[in-house]
């Protein structure tokens, strides 16, 4: 149904009002504010994680990140629950793609995996981390599936479900570990903080990559349905 | 944390005091006898349905006498009143349904008024016990409001004009057993509420005068309405409304004058006992008459005379006792309104006598249903009630029957108690002679009078409301007629653009209010 | 007026544009994109405001919020698109029906 | 490791682990995983409430950092009450669902993913009730939103998809508005921890704008009139156990945060006018929701609009809260009792409505006349839920209304009491209409019971619990007294 371009005045006025109110609110702020940066920077120094943002994400506010992983996994599962025909895409992509795409995929995927690993590794000191790595890994997964190296239906098979869940499950296990040692949830012991964070990051990368791949493949799977109508 | 909190099980407190005893006796007897009567007269298959409503109603109806705090009073009040709807509609007739709907509407409104009154009083009193509530009202700034709400709620319960139709509606369509319980006990809960909740002896004179006049108007008005109806039970219903008007007079007598309070309360109790038992006996007797033939029928009609005469206040009946108690209460007051009420009271008995004559004519006239083979048990139950009607008020260990006992052999008093009945008989004779004039009025009124008319109007108004899209599927689905325009408004309100814009405007409004 | 004010003002513009789109555009994919506009607007505001610290390093907390927010928005977007797609494949429509009654069953 | 010390964390982690395990284990094992998780959660919830009652409010410092750096969970009476309510309704919904989702078609009902999604929703609700951090609230309400939308669309029909999409867009709009509010609030006050915020808040435009936006967003998620537009369709098109969970629990989640923001975070009278506006909208919701419930022709829509109306009562607490501690205590207890009673009764009512729909094969009220003969248990459950909706004693609905009316009259703002009384009358009207249809003297054409009959007793159990809730009012009142709102001393981080 083609939409005729039109402006509705009331929604427009409402949006403009929101704009004006936000500007007014921001304008009322003082020019400088420290927020929590001082505490956070000091805390990060103490904890040994050089990148403060990573320290905030995985340590100080690790609980947010735990639930955020849950959000991503939940969305993936929600999208999986909406598939009509899980095998539609698999039927369309039946064999390995032609020589060029095959060769390129063979060349790129290992590089992407290395890049993903690198992004995770440098996350502790600079920009990077599980999400960035996971995104690259997810792209690799999609590439593998579309070029026929991996069957798209695998995206919802039992092994894939394990991969999807392993990051969150590991994160939970690591979060619960301190409880046995007398701490609270996510209170990493100081001596093993770095290695635990790294372990979580690596497995999270895997799960995030799997999630993104699954999100793509699950919603791509029944394209033919809509086109048929 | 706060005394206003219903503290769970502990907040439901019950107590036995001088007010509970007569009401516990009355409600206990009536709900038990009527229950047994229903049991023996209801076919086995229909019992489950009747008793599903009867039992909760009976539990509420009996325990309300014991309720000692606002929450348990409200609980029992509601528990008695609401399931009664199922008893009224038990017949499954359209009239019964309509009666049930009107009854339910008025009852729920009455409940809401009572809740508001109780909450108002509890907040003032800072507690929930009924005696605290009444005491606190004496000096409270919201005294008038709370009293007004209470009186409105009670008026709906006891059928004060213009709501007098509620009683005939609730008696006319229920099976005889439950109807007898409703006739004997339901409106008396209103009397109990007068005793338990109305401020005593602290209100301005005007309040007392207005309440007494309302009672007097109802006493006469309901009698006039009742004479125009054509079913025996509807006549009884209007008679109840009329008699409860007298109880309202008694309650009014106690509102302003502290000296009259004991007399007023005595009169309410006496009237409740007398009228509850007598009315219950009349409803059952009507059913007995319908079940019998020949000599048994004559015997039953003779038996019916006892409660009927009691209502009229004939000498040696319980009505004689109750009327004395009422007169004593009104007599204790000074002022023009009490005097007027006092002098008009005997004339109310003329109305009652007229109603009773009408009831007899209708009962004797109405067709006999197939004789019940098990009519011995119903008859025995009825006989038990008749004995109680005859004895209770005279034998009750209280002070309110002393005056009547003293007067029982005084010829002047006997004459006073008899002439209204004679006048009514005379009037009846006149009416029967000139049938032509009154024939048209006979049956001019359906049970429920203006309430039924009101319900019809509401229905008609609903049907007349313009509908947005007559062809809409809603019509076929028998959606409520009035619903269509409302559904249409909502339909437009929840379209995405409208609704989400409304939300953003709401957010803007909140921000503006917050940063004012 | 600093550079960061531009970020904040730009963020507010994006947010308002997104709001308008989510409210008014009837194509479902437009709505999903509009919601992403709103998200990006907030992220810009957060980044802008994070730089009001007196030190050269910006406040890490809003940055962490942005990272979390992005992931959550991605999740929401994915679900939104999946539902739009399934809805299209079931009904062949790309708009919410304003003229149909809520909750009607066939 | 002493479990008792970690109850707040475990209440979130347990259903989360359950969700992951249910997902990995697959469709056949998942129902058992869910049942086990639900049982465990009930035990944890009861232990948690007992601990809060015994020791008063406490904070659980995740990561050991403590606010304002880290995220604290706030364990108080209010949270405990909602968590116990969630666990009870949750357990019943889980058992009901194990009878409901019995399909042999592998693609039906979201490929058996209901259990995972449901446990995610449970996680997020517990998280929402426990969190003491306004940004963490954002993550939690997104979890609630996504799981709720996915559960609505799980049956996959066009109606469910359309309803789910409206719900999703409403969720997005709400979440974005909320997040913008958090951004502004943090910019002004420099904290996201609620207790810290309540100390640092200054009445400047930025913070007030932020908080107002957050409250507005939560009002949308709670479906207060006029932002109720997404609720009736979403709640009516979802599969029955989902409808029950959405109406009984999910709207309470965002409402709970409004309580926290309005009563805990903001100092007295911080947002002038906002509290009044919320009260007015609450009153409007009571009237408009009831009127709409009265005219609906489909049973689930009737029940959903009843939810719209009942939500209104919850918002009357805000204008009343400004009248001193005594009134606040009365009103807050009233609102909490109401939330509990409504959760139980509406959960039961939706399950009963679902049972009726299953037996009749449609949801048209007019054609359900005389249902009582075929399904007496469900009819009785509906009638019992009516008792609490109308506010008759000894139901929780009565206790709640009594407390709110008392609060209104004590404060002198009697007009809220009028609203409450009128609301009771309207509720009586729509519930009687429903009951009258069911017990009408007409032959009902129902299919023979295709489901295990045990599912018919579950709604009855829930509504009966709501009717007897008056006897639990002392407990709820103790929990309210153990909330940070009423314990001025309990808000230090």
Textual characterization of the structure:
- The complex is a heterotetramer of chains A (229), B (516), C (106) and D (493).
- Helices cover 71% and strands 0% of the residues of chain A.
- The longest helix of chain A is centred in the last third of the chain and has 28 residues.
- Chain A is globular and about 60 Å long.
- With 516 residues, chain B is mostly helical.
- In chain B, 76% of the residues lie in helices and 0% in strands.
- By secondary structure, chain D is an all-alpha fold.
- Chain D has a domain of 214 residues.
- Chain D is globular and about 65 Å long.
- Classes of the chains: A mainly alpha (229), B mainly alpha (516), C mainly alpha (106), D mainly alpha (493).
- At the B-D interface, helix 3, helix 5, helix 22 and helix 23 of B face helix 7, helix 9, helix 12, helix 15 and helix 18 of D.
Most extensive protein-chain contact, per-chain counts: B-D, 57 and 76 residues
Low-confidence stretches of chain B: 465-479
Number of domains of chain C: 1
Domains of chain B (count): 2
Question: Features of this protein?
Answer:
heterotetramer; B: 516 residues; mainly alpha; 2 domains; 23 helices; globular; D: 493 residues; two-stranded antiparallel sheet; 2 strands; disordered C terminus
What's a concise summary of this model?
The complex is a heterotetramer of chains A (229), B (516), C (106) and D (493). With 516 residues, chain B is mainly alpha-helical. Chain B has helices spanning 20-41, 44-63, 70-81, 84-88, 94-125, 130-137, 143-158, 166-172, 176-197, 205-227, 232-256, 261-291, 294-312, 318-331, 336-365, 376-395, 402-407, 411-433, 435-439, 449-464, 473-476, 483-493, 496-514.
SSE topology sketch:
The complex is a heterotetramer of chains A (229), B (516), C (106) and D (493).
Chain A: H1 9-27, H2 37-47, H3 52-60, H4 62-81, H5 88-92, H6 99-122, H7 130-146, H8 158-180, H9 193-220, H10 223-228
Chain C: H1 3-24, H2 28-50, H3 60-91
Chain D: H1 7-25, H2 30-55, E1 58-61, E2 72-75, H3 77-100, H4 108-111, H5 114-130, H6 134-152, H7 158-189, H8 194-200, H9 205-222, H10 231-237, H11 240-265, H12 274-295, H13 299-315, H14 317-320, H15 324-360, H16 371-374, H17 376-390, H18 396-411, H19 414-438, H20 454-467, H21 473-481
Antiparallel strand pairs in D: 1-2
Helix pairs in contact in D: 1-2, 1-5, 2-3, 3-5, 3-11, 3-15, 3-20, 3-21, 5-6, 5-11, 6-7, 6-11, 7-9, 7-10, 8-11, 9-11, 10-11, 10-13, 11-15, 12-13, 12-19, 13-15, 13-19, 15-17, 15-18, 15-20, 15-21, 17-19, 17-20, 18-19
């Amino acid at each position: 149904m083609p939409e005729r371009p039109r402006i509705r005045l009331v929604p427009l006025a409402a949006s403009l009002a929101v704009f004006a109110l936000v500007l007014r609110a921001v304008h009322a702020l003082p020019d400088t504010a420290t927020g929590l940066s001082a505490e956070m920077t000091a805390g990060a120094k103490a904890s040994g994680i050089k990148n403060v943002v990573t320290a905030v994400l995985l340590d100080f506010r690790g609980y947010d990140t735990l639930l955020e992983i849950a959000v991503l996994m939940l969305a993936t599962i929600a999208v999986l629950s909406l598939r009509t025909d899980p095998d539609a895409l698999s039927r369309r992509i039946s064999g390995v793609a032609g020589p060029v795409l095959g060769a390129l995929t063979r060349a790129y995927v290992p590089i992407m995996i290395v890049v993903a690993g690198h992004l995770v590794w440098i996350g502790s000191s600079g920009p990077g981390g599980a999400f960035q790595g996971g995104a690259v890994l997810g792209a690799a997964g999609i590439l593998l599936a579309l070029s026929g190296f991996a069957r798209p239906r695998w995206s919802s098979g039992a092994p894939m479900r394990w991969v999807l869940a392993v990051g969150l499950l590991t994160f939970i296990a690591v979060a619960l570990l301190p409880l046995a040692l007398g701490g609270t949830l996510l209170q990493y012991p100081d001596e093993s903080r770095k290695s635990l964070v790294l372990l979580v990051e690596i497995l999270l990368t895997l799960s995030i990559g799997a999630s993104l791949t699954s999100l793509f493949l699950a919603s791509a799977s029944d394209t033919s349905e809509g086109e048929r109508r | 944390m706060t005394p206003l909190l219903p503290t769970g099980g502990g907040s439901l407190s019950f107590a036995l005091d001088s007010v509970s005893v007569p009401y516990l006796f009355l409600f206990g007897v009536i709900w038990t006898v009527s229950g047994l009567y229903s049991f023996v007269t209801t076919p086995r298959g229909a019992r489950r349905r009747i008793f599903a409503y009867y039992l909760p109603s009976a539990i509420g109806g009996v325990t309300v006498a014991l309720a000692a705090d606002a929450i348990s009073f409200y609980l029992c009040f509601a528990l008695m009143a609401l399931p009664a709807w199922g008893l009224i509609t038990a017949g499954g007739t359209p009239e019964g349904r309509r009666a049930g709907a009107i009854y339910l509407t008025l009852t729920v409104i009455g409940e809401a008024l009572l809740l508001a009154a109780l909450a108002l009083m509890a907040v003032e009193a800072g507690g929930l016990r009924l005696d605290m509530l009444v005491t606190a009202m004496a000096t409270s700034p919201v005294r008038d409001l709370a009293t007004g709400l209470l009186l409105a709620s009670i008026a709906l319960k006891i059928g004060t004009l213009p709501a007098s139709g509620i009683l005939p509606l609730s008696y006319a369509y229920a099976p005889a057993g439950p109807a007898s319980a409703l006739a004997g006990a339901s409106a008396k809960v209103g009397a109990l509420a007068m005793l338990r909740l109305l401020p005593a002896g602290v209100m301005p004179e005007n309040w007392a005068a207005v309440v007494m006049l309302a009672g007097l108007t109802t006493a006469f008005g309901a009698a006039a309405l009742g004479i125009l109806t054509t079913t025996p039970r509807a006549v009884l219903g209007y008679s109840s409304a009329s008699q409860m008007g007298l109880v309202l007079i008694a309650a009014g007598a106690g509102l302003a004058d502290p000296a009259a309070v004991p007399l007023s309360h005595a009169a309410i109790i006496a009237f409740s006992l007398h009228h509850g038992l007598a009315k219950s006996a009349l409803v059952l007797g009507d059913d007995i008459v319908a079940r019998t033939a020949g000599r048994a029928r004559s015997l039953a009609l003779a038996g019916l005379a006892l409660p009927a005469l009691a209502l009229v206040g004939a000498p040696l009946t319980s009505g004689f006792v109750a009327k004395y108690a009422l007169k004593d209460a009104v007599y204790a007051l000074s002022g023009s309104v009490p005097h007027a009420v006092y002098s008009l009271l005997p004339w109310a008995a003329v109305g009652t006598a007229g109603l009773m004559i009408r009831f007899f004519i209708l009962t004797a006239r109405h067709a006999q249903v197939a004789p019940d083979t098990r009519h011995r048990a119903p008859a025995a139950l009825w006989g038990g009630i008749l004995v109680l009607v005859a004895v209770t008020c005279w034998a009750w260990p209280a002070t309110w029957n002393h005056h009547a006992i003293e007067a029982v052999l005084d010829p002047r008093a006997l004459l006073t108690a008899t002439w209204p009945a004679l006048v009514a008989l005379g009037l009846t004779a006149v009416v029967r002679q000139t049938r032509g004039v009154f024939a048209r009025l006979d049956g001019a009124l359906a049970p429920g009078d203006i309430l039924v008319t009101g319900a019809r109007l509401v229905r008609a108004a609903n049907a007349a409301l313009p509908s947005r899209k007559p062809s809409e599927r809603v019509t076929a689905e028998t959606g409520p007629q009035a619903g269509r325009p409302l559904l249409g408004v909502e339909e437009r309100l929840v379209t995405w653009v409208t609704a989400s814009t409304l939300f953003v405007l709401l957010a803007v409004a909140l921000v503006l209010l917050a940063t004012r | 007026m600093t550079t960061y004010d531009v970020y904040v003002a730009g963020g507010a513009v994006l947010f308002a544009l997104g709001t308008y789109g989510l409210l008014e555009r009837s194509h479902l994919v437009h709505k999903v994109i509009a919601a992403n506009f709103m998200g990006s607007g907030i992220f810009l505001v957060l980044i802008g405001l994070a730089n009001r610290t007196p030190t050269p390093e910006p406040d890490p907390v809003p940055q962490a919020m942005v990272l979390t927010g992005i992931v959550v928005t991605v999740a929401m977007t994915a679900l939104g698109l999946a539902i739009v797609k399934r809805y299209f494949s079931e009904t062949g429509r790309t708009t919410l029906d304003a003229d149909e009654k809520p909750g009607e069953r066939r | 490791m002493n479990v008792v010390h970690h109850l707040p964390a475990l209440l979130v982690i347990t259903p989360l682990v359950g969700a992951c395990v249910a997902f990995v284990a697959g469709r056949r094992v998942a129902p058992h995983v869910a049942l086990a998780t639900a049982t465990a959660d009930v035990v944890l919830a009861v232990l948690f409430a007992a601990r809060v009652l015994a020791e008063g409010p406490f904070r659980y410092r995740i990561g050991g950092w403590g606010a304002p750096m880290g995220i604290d969970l706030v364990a108080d009476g209010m949270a405990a009450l909602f968590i116990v309510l969630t666990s009870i309704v949750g357990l019943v919904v889980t058992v009901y669902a194990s009878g409901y989702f019995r399909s042999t078609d592998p693609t039906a009902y979201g490929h058996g993913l209901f259990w995972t999604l449901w446990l995610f929703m449970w996680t997020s609700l517990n998280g929402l009730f426990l969190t003491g951090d306004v940004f963490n609230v954002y993550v939690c309400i997104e979890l609630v939103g996504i799981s709720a939308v996915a559960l609505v669309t799980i049956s996959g029909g066009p109606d469910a998809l359309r309803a789910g999409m409206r719900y999703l867009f409403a969720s997005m709009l709400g979440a974005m508005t909320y997040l913008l509010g958090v951004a502004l609030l943090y910019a002004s006050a420099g904290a996201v921890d609620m207790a810290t915020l309540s100390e640092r808040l200054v009445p400047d435009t930025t913070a007030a704008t932020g908080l107002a936006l957050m409250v507005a967003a939560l009002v949308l998620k709670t479906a207060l009139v006029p932002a109720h537009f997404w609720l009736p369709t979403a709640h009516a098109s979802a599969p029955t156990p989902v409808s029950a969970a959405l109406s009984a629990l999910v709207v309470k989640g965002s409402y709970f945060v409004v309580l926290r923001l309005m009563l805990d975070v903001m100092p007295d009278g911080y947002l002038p006018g906002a509290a009044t506006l919320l009260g007015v909208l609450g009153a409007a919701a009571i009237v408009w929701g009831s009127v709409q419930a009265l005219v609906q022709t489909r049973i689930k829509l009737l029940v959903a609009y009843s939810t719209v109306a009942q939500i209104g009562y919850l918002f009357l607490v805000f204008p009343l809260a400004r009248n001193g501690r005594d009134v606040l205590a009365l009103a807050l207890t009233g609102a909490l009792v109401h939330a509990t009673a409504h959760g139980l009764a509406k959960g039961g009512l939706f399950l009963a409505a679902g049972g009726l729909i299953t037996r009749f094969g449609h949801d048209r009220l007019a054609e359900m006349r005389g249902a009582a003969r075929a399904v007496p248990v469900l009819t009785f459950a509906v009638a019992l839920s009516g008792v609490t909706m109308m506010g008759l004693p000894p139901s929780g609905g009565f206790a709640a209304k009594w407390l709110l009316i008392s609060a209104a009259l004590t404060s002198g703002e009697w007009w809220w009491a009028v609203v409450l009384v009128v609301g009771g009358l309207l509720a009586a009207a729509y519930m009687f209409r429903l009951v009258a249809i069911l017990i009408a003297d007409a032959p009902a054409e129902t299919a023979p019971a295709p489901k295990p009959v045990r599912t018919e007793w579950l709604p009855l159990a829930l509504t009966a619990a709501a009717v007897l809730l008056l006897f639990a009012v002392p407990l709820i009142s103790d929990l309210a007294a153990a909330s940070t709102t009423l314990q001025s001393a309990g808000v230090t981080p």
